[in-house]
Amino acid sequence: MSLLGYDLTSARDISHPWWKPMVSLINFVLLGYCLKSYFRWDRQKTASFRRFTFNILLPAYVLRNMWMAHIDSSMYDIAKVSFLLHLMQSCFWWCLYRNVPESSMRGWLSMISQGCLTSFFYTNLSNHGAFGQQAIAICLLWDIGGNTPCCQLLLWGIAAFHAPLNRSQKVDTSFGSANSRPLLQAPGRRKEDMYPHFFHLTQKGVAESRPDEEDTTECTFLLDEEHTPTETNTAAKSWLEVLSSVLFQPILPAFLIGLFLSLYSIGCPIVVDLSLEAIGLLFKPCLYFLIGLYSDIITDPQELRIVFTVIGLRYLFAAFIGLAMWLWLPFPSLERTTMALSLLSPVSTMTIYLSAEYGYPNHFLSMSAAITTISVFLSFGIQEIVMRSY
User: What DSSP character marks residue 325?
Assistant: First the structure.
């Protein structure tokens, strides 16, 4: 998920406080978490709600905002720079994680590092006097050029290619409670084989955890030389299957149709516009609620280490590239600053959806929700500080 968190058709000045989106996020996340934790929200409801949010609300949201967007052809160079930079980023993360032998872990690490959620940034730009509508147009071209194609194409391909081997026999991993989610264990595989490069696993007398029993697997995070990585068997994914996953997703057609209608200035009938707007308005609250449903209090030190390692690597790389862009790109100051800040946007929420849809282990869902929530606060704070000092 990447773009269009702001209604680009509206020229009115938004007067609500800059922190209002954060309050909405906290409220809906807490609501989802409380329903899951204290009211036994059913896992089938979670799966249905997830598909409703990403297969109906999000396409309508993207279609309308792309259709109504006024794309400035004089700034196409920004889209080109965005495409090249996102391509470079993809190569960097592939080189960084290519030696992780466990396929699901490698796929999840690659997904969580790709793409940005810029919806908060649009609202923040609109409220700032020095940025405003011109910066929003810059951010829109940045999303169209690289960020959105990265999320809509690359993430789906990664998710399909690295999906667990036994997806057809998997236990439903769309929902995991504190007592039922397996710790660092993929369905249908021995714990001894899990993540040999990242984890050394030992058993404490429990051969196989049941849903109502506590998982007593102890894991030690290892990147030491004394533990040699072992190769794992990965399914020979058909490129046709991966390509089908990319092309027959519900969001890509909405993006392409909206972009085509916008580029050729095809007007939107008022009834269609109002209908899409009404459907799209539900997307953000439902997305925040879904994050709460997948959130979990992570107490395992190794999972915490993974979470903060991923966040740290992501922001270090984004800060380095953003600074290089600001110093060297031949664009005016506003364009360079806006593009650099776009790189510091939060983690894409699409990782949560894809991890659930493609049967990744439950702990990937909870870690994805945690990383997304933490990165929202980090990105929002960093962007606000930089914009106030601009």
Answer: H
Report which residue type is found at 1: M
Give the predicted TM-score (pTM) of the model.
0.77
Distance between CA atoms of 294 and 307, rounded to whole angstroms? 15
Are 23 and 239 within 8 A, CB to CB?
no
What's the burial of 294, exposed, middle or buried (CB within 10 Å: 0-12/13-18/19+)?
Answer: buried
Per-residue tokens: 295: 């959130």
The two tokens of residue 155 are 């993430």
Domain boundaries, the chain: 20-183+239-388
Phi-psi sector, 184: left (phi>0), alpha (psi -120 to 50), beta: left
Model confidence pLDDT, tens digit, residues 147-173: 988 888 899 999 999 988 655 433 333
Question: What is the arithmetic mean of pLDDT over 29-34?
Answer: 93
Tokens of 28: 């809906």
pLDDT tens-digit readout, 370-379: 999 999 999 9
Question: Mean pLDDT for the chain?
Answer: 78
Please give the pLDDT value at position 215. 39
Q: 355 Cβ partners below 8 Å, 6+ apart?
A: 108, 111, 159, 364, 365, 368
What does the alpha-carbon distance between residue 354 and residue 338 come to, in Å, rounded to a whole number? 29
* pLDDT of res. 202: 32
Topology given in CATH for the domain delimited by 20-183+239-388 = Na+/H+ antiporter like fold (1.20.1530)
**Mean pLDDT value across residues 74-90:** 92
Closest to 99 (Cα-Cα) out of 234, 237, 229: 229
CB 181 within 8 A of CB 362: yes
Among residues 161, 158, 188, 162, the alpha carbon closest in space to that of 173 is found at 188
Distance CA 206, CA 175 (A): 23
Distance between CA 342 and CA 138 in Å, rounded?
10
Residue 292 to residue 26: CA distance in whole angstroms: 9
pLDDT at residue 75, rounded to an integer: 86
Q: Provide the angle, in degrees to the nearest 10, between the axes of the packed helices 333-343 and 132-142.
A: 50
